[in-house]
């Protein structure tokens, strides 16, 4: 194959583009025909094989991308003797493949794409002898068209590309098998990296590809046949993504008037009046865009995680590094048929430190999970928590800095929320009061008067008045997250059960850099935690809430759950539709191991808090009654 | 008809003599005397005046002003009878628009023509149109404070420089202003007006610590309440409020509810708002903590630096070119410039590294070890250090990934100490590491790398070089000692003036600069407009922000208290201690009214809460207008229906004097 590409270099440079176009079109047609035959024959020969092996094979297509993934808490599952849903995982993997192949928007070329995809699968399966024979057949077909004497470089590059695809898929196949093997071992790998074939492309090949792509573009310009263009460029794009960054240059090298063409894209309405050149330029630009996107996509990291459900069961799923907590939650709600509620949350528990935190919807899940250590006992729990959005359901209890709860008309609540979150800056509620602060390294607690400001948490030094200029900064919030501490009365002799903890998310063990605060009652605790959330995240919190609200509202409107996940899923379009398709697939795999019908119960870990919360609200309610009297 | 006489010279009809003063005839000139009857229209009177003056000029802006009644006779179809005008009335025929000297929020003076006949609300709108400030309803005019002698004594005081003159500017008739050469068309008439636009849209950089020290600073709530007694009433005209031609007035943002700040259209508005915020912070009208002050100082420093080279005519937000475009053009440039493919590949893929002998110190409990020389390699976002360069191929002594770490400068220039303190998070906690560099250059390179790495970026990032420069220039700033000649640019000015006098006293420059430097690293990459917006936002999130204070006496209370009026609530504050006693929100407000006889404002809230107070420090009408104004502003809707319901404003703010 190396030789081929070299050869092609020798011939390639000074081709007549007009002739080439015809060559390309014909040859491509023939080539596709060949592929069809091949796939058909395969399917009839071994009907059982594709079914069984399909996940693996499809995964090999993903190998076109440098592909990394890792597992979390899988060992735990294995230790418990539960079956890991490898099938479900495979379904996940498949979906990624679909994602990749469905990028082309026109349905017409997606059909050809599939053919291409199957071709690589076929090619990868049989041993090497078969492989080469296929190549010769392609060559044969081109020679039969009578133009071998002047071989077009595009022809060669196409072969080249398929060869590379195969190479990549083979190596990935190996990798995948390895990973399966490794999965059997109870090892949690913090960050496996499997880069497949990214480095295997020689310089010469790269150049040849750029040559061919140039030729294909010129052919597009003259032939005006968009379908053909797509056929031509598609495999290249796949190839481009495979090679990662360096290719960007080549893409650009073929588009001379990039700026100009970009402008054309902006005026799509004028399409009808575009000259052929302009249209070609537009297509070029569009392709460059797609290719660039794919290059980005190729860097995507995946993580296999274990999510604990409220009923002590657990689920294994795959998340990619772009996914927000919201997207994962949507996925989980779809899968577990638990109904849609604002309160579904992903909770991180750090058992070693006895603390937990509800992930915010906009946070990136993978990023957070990567903070866990290798042998971490941390858990990720999927559970309903009223604390998550209580702030927005009863803003008057959090934003007004009042000591007592009160009722408020819905209209006023909206006004209040808008006032707080929709201005040009977010108003951090004025929360202040005496809290207990744990001494470093000791189990003793000291009282201090703390104040919350947008710039951080402050306290009033002894003997000073409560004026801004004398306040001492206790913590700035940029680098810390706020956690609920659990049962610190026992662990640290805390004065009450209502503790909050501030620490850098990366800290996982006892450290002097963790700050422990204790409140007198649950109400104060929640006010502080929500105040800190507002100071830290600002308007994003409100956006999260509104999106969650939209999500749940629309969920009730849709009869089909899966379709709703497509339509109403978060506005970011980074997750293609195939993602939710796969969620259906994997769902079937998962639900076997799951007791159907999730009870909406609180997990044990969280029960303390929700009970405390309930107690608090009951108290509040009773106090309300008394006040009315 | 009028003026028929009998033979004896007595008038036989109902006509009488009306005297009208005309300023154009000179101060000594006798008033004109007109013979009129009660049924003459105002328009007719004015015609007669013009006839009598016999001066050829444009009289279209002139109107009649009734001095005793303080009334403009603007309805030209009304008769004298209808106005109740009689022979004893003293009238002046005078222009409706007169020049005033206006002190802008940035404390610069400007001369503009303001309408003296329309309500101040509309006069301000007119001024803001000239200045290109949208949402004029948020601003209003104050009387300038009485000049005290002691301020005049020494040195230049801000606001006494030469005025910028915009009085000759003619606004285009169309409502929509077409920008011309990047500024509103009416500014591009002459170099003088262009300079004026620059003054309006670029914040002033020539500030010195003395300027701040000389400004009067309110030291307590009562003093903060003082300024609010000077607001002019929005529903009456300037003339009615005894404002004279060429009098000095202040233009300020009065209502702290800034609607739809849009960098694209609001260049002047954002700049002026920033200036008002900056002064509020520097003069401690809005109180801030030490940490907050450092952020404000860093932002000011940054804004000043950018302002020195800023071109106001450059439209803001151009940098917002979308990723793809810039990425592509970058690549294209690289391609065109590059010669061989392999070179480019290398440039794109290799990430710059730093390798140096540095001294490293790791503070641990109960150890007295000092700095130790190591071979340190900074690659991507990690720092690895080795015992020596020879061992660099083997295992490092330690490797630190700086992603998410805190980077604190620890610099003492006179002591030639250039340390970087790193707080690197790890599962076990934060590990503290000090890197000691030899000189500024080395320090700047490593510091910039650390900062980028903390944000998860590598030195391949395009901002690396500018970051290095930033650090170097800041060190330069620190080097500048008092004895160096004071150049007029911000660099040599030191950092003292960036903070309020209180902190100027508290910190030596040596201590202050590193603090500001530390805060600066978080804002160093902001554009000019972004930095101003950030400043405004940080100001807005101060607890004291947007509260206008009044000394009041609550009904049934014997002592003076403070009433704070904010955009969403009223706050009752203890005058002596400054604690909030009670808060009422407008959303719970049922109604409010003013008893003008006893000058008392009474407000009824939900659940039959009634509050009544009389204003001590300011006119009752000012308090009333403030509350009404905020309620009016809250009715603004987000859809771009441009028109404001002016009638509603007067209704809400004007009380019995309006309409």
UniProtKB/TrEMBL annotation, chain A:
Residues 584-600 have a biased composition (Polar residues). Residues 428-537 form the PH domain. Pfam families: PH, RA_2. Residues 1-26, 104-154, 185-223, 567-600 are annotated as: Disordered. Residues 1-23 have a biased composition (Acidic residues). One of its GO terms (biological process) is signal transduction. Residues 301-387 form the Ras-associating domain. Coiled coil: none annotated. Residues 207-223, 567-583 have a biased composition (Low complexity). Belongs to the MRL family. This is Ras association (RalGDS/AF-6) and pleckstrin homology domains 1.
Automatic annotation (TrEMBL), chain B:
This is Fermitin family member 3. Belongs to the kindlin family. The lineage of its organism: Eukaryota, Metazoa, Chordata, Craniata, Vertebrata. GO terms for molecular function: integrin binding. It comes from Chelydra serpentina. InterPro entries: Band_41_domain, FERM_2, FERM_central, Kindlin/fermitin, Kindlin_2_N, PH-like_dom_sf, PH_domain, PH_Kindlin/fermitin. It is found in: Cell junction; Cell projection. Its main location: other. GO terms for cellular component: cell projection; cell-substrate junction. Residues 359-455 form the PH domain. The keyword ATP-binding does not apply.
């Amino acid at each position: 194959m190396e030789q081929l590409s070299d050869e092609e270099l020798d011939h390639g440079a000074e081709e007549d583009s007009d002739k080439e176009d015809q060559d390309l079109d014909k040859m491509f047609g023939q080539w596709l025909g060949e592929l069809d035959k091949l796939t058909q024959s395969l399917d009839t020969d071994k009907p059982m094989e594709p079914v069984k092996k399909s996940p693996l094979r499809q995964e090999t297509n993903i190998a076109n991308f440098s592909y990394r993934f890792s597992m979390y808490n899988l060992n735990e599952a294995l230790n418990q003797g539960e079956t890991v849903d490898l099938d479900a995982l495979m379904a996940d993997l498949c979906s990624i493949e679909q994602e990749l192949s469905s990028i082309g928007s026109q349905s017409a070329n997606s059909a050809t794409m599939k053919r291409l995809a199957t071709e690589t699968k076929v090619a990868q399966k049989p041993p090497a002898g078969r492989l080469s024979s296929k190549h010769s057949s392609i060559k044969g077909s081109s020679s039969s068209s009578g133009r071998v004497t002047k071989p077009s470089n595009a022809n060669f590059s196409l072969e080249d590309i398929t060869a590379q695809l195969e190479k990549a898929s083979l190596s990935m196949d190996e990798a995948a098998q390895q990973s399966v093997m490794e999965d059997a071992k109870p090892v949690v790998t913090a960050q496996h990296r499997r880069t497949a074939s990214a480095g295997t492309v020689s310089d010469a090949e790269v150049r040849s590809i750029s040559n061919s792509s140039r030729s294909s573009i010129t052919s597009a310009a003259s032939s005006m046949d968009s379908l053909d263009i797509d056929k031509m460029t598609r495999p290249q794009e796949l190839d481009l993504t495979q090679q990662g960054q360096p290719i960007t240059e080549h893409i650009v090298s073929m588009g001379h008037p990039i700026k100009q063409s970009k402008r054309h894209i902006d005026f799509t309405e004028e399409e009808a009046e575009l000259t052929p050149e302009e249209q070609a330029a537009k297509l070029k630009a569009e392709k460059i865009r797609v290719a660039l996107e794919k290059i980005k996509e190729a860097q995507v990291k995946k993580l296999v995680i274990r999510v604990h459900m409220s009923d002590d069961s657990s689920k294994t799923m795959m998340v990619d590094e772009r996914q927000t907590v919201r997207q994962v939650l949507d996925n989980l709600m779809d899968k577990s048929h638990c109904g849609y509620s604002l309160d579904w949350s992903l909770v991180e528990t750090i058992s070693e430190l006895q603390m937990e935190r509800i992930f915010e919807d906009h946070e990136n899940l993978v990023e957070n999970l990567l903070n866990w250590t290798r042998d971490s006992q941390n858990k990720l729990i999927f559970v309903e928590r009223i604390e998550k959005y209580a702030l927005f359901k009863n803003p008057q209890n959090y934003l007004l800095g009042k000591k007592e709860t009160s009722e408020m008309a819905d209209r006023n609540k909206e006004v209040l929320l808008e006032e707080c979150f929709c201005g040009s800056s977010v108003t951090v509620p004025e929360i202040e009061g005496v809290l207990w602060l744990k001494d470093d390294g000791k189990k003793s607690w000291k009282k201090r008067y703390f104040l919350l400001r947008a710039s951080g948490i402050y306290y009033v030094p002894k003997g000073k008045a409560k004026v801004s200029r004398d306040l001492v900064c206790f913590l700035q919030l940029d680098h810390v997250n706020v956690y609920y501490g659990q049962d610190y009365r026992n662990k640290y002799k805390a004065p009450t059960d209502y503790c909050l903890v501030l620490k850098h998310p990366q800290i996982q063990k006892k450290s002097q850099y963790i700050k422990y605060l204790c409140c007198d009652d649950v109400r104060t605790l929640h006010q502080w935690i929500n105040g800190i959330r507002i100071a830290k995240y600002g308007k994003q919190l409100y956006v999260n809430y509104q999106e969650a609200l939209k999500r749940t509202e629309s969920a009730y409107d849709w009869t089909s759950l899966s379709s709703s996940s497509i339509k109403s899923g978060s506005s970011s379009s980074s997750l293609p539709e195939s993602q939710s398709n796969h969620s259906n697939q994997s769902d079937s795999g998962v639900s076997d191991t799951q007791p159907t019908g999730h009870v909406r119960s609180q997990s044990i870990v969280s029960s303390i808090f929700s009970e405390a919360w309930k107690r608090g609200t009951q108290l509040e309610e009773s106090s309300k009654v008394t006040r009315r009297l | 008809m009028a003026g028929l006489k009998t033979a004896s010279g007595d008038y036989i009809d109902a006509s009488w003599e009306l005297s009208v003063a005309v300023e154009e005839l000179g101060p000594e000139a006798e008033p004109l005397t007109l013979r009129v009857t009660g049924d003459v229209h105002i328009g007719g009177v004015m015609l007669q005046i013009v006839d009598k003056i016999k001066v050829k000029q444009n009289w279209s802006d002139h109107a009649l002003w009734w001095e005793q009644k303080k009334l403009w006779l603007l309805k030209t179809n009304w008769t004298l009878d209808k106005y109740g005008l009689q022979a004893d009335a003293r009238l002046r025929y005078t222009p409706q628009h007169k020049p005033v000297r206006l002190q802008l929020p940035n404390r610069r003076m400007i001369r503009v023509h303001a309408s003296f006949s329309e309500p101040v609300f509309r006069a301000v709108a007119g001024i803001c149109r000239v200045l290109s400030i949208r949402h004029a309803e948020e601003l209003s005019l104050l009387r300038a404070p009485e000049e005290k002698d002691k301020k005049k004594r020494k040195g230049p005081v801000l606001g006494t420089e030469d005025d910028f003159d915009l009085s000759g500017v003619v606004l285009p008739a169309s409502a929509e202003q077409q920008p011309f050469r990047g500024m509103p068309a009416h500014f591009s008439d002459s170099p003088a007006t262009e300079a004026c636009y620059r003054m309006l849209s670029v914040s002033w950089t020539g500030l010195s610590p003395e300027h701040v020290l000389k400004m009067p600073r309110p030291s307590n709530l009562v003093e903060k309440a003082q300024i609010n007694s000077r607001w002019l009433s929005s529903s009456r005209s300037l003339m009615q409020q005894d404002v004279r031609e060429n009098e000095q007035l202040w233009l300020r943002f009065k209502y702290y509810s800034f609607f739809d700040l849009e960098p694209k259209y609001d260049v002047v508005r954002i700049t002026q708002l920033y200036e008002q915020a900056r002064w509020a912070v520097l003069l401690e009208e809005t109180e801030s903590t030490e940490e907050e002050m450092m952020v404000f100082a860093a932002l000011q420093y940054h804004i000043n630096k950018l302002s020195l080279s800023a071109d106001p005519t450059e439209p803001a937000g151009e940098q917002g070119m979308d990723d793809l475009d810039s990425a592509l053009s970058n690549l294209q440039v690289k391609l065109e410039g590059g010669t061989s493919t392999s070179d480019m590949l290398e440039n794109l893929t290799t990430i710059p590294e730093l390798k140096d002998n540095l001294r490293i110190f790791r503070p641990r409990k109960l150890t007295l070890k000092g700095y130790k020389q190591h071979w340190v390699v900074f690659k991507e976002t990690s720092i690895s250090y080795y015992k020596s360069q020879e061992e660099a191929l083997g295992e490092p002594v330690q490797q630190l990934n700086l992603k998410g770490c805190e980077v604190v400068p620890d610099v003492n220039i006179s002591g030639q100490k250039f340390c970087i303190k790193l707080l690197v998070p790890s599962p076990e906690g934060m590990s503290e590491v000090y890197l000691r560099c030899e000189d500024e250059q080395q320090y700047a390179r490593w510091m910039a790398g650390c900062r980028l790495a903390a944000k998860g970026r590598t030195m391949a990032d395009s901002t690396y070089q500018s970051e290095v420069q930033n650090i170097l220039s800041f060190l330069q700033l620190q080097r500048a000692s008092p004895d160096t000649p004071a150049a007029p640019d911000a660099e040599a000015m030191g950092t003292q003036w960036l903070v309020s006098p209180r902190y100027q006293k508290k910190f030596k420059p040596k201590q202050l600069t590193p603090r500001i430097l530390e805060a600066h690293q978080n804002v160093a990459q902001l554009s000019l407009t972004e930095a101003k917006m950030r400043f405004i936002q940080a100001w807005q999130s101060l607890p004291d922000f947007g509260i206008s204070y009044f000394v009041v006496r609550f009904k049934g209370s014997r002592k003076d208290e403070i009433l704070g009026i904010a955009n969403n609530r009223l706050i009752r504050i203890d005058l002596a201690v400054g604690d909030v006693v009670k808060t009422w929100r407008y959303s719970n407000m049922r109604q409010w009214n003013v008893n003008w006889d006893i000058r008392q404002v009474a407000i009824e809230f939900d659940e039959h809460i009634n509050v009544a107070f009389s204003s001590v420090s300011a006119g009752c009408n000012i308090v009333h207008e403030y509350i009404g104004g905020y309620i009016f502003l809250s009715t603004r809707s987000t859809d771009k229906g441009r028109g404001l319901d002016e009638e509603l404003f007067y209704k809400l703010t004007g009380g019995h004097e309006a309409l």
